[in-house]
Amino acid sequence: MRYIVNLASRLLIICTVAGLCLAVTFGFTNPEIQRQKEEAELAALESLFPGISTFEEIPFDEQTYDRVTKVVKIMDGDGAVIGLCVGMNAKGYKGDIPLNVGFYPDGTLSGLRVGSNSETAGLGSRVAEPDYYTQYDNKSAPLSLGTDIVAISGATISSRAVLKGVNLAAEAFASLDK
Question: How far apart are CA 48 and CA 52, in angstroms?
């Protein structure tokens, strides 16, 4: 019995020290991680709308569009709206594929940017490459695979997921009070 209590005490001390070390590390690194995420978001918005001056997040119907994570209104230096960006998570082959879908005020796609994802390397992950996502530039939704968009060979599920996400983002955009 004494052996078990001794062993349990040592294990408790080791776990407590390890937990404290993790908490301290998280406390130091989390602000930097958040800053880098914000910079990546800003870079995606700037690549979709080069004339961006300011942006503001606007509310959307989270019940109807549960895959949508945010909607951002993009404005130029004069405060005129130059577009909206719908952020969402498309359901891919190996998990969520984060998308930023840009729309001009008339509903035309300004472009698409695909975030870091866990799709199969060399196949599904190619949806994040410019050769694929630039197909969406200046097109009007709804889009279809084969007609408007060429799928990535061997990654049809990922290609369909992104296409479905873009079409859902277009539905969300159409429902907004711009």
Answer: 9
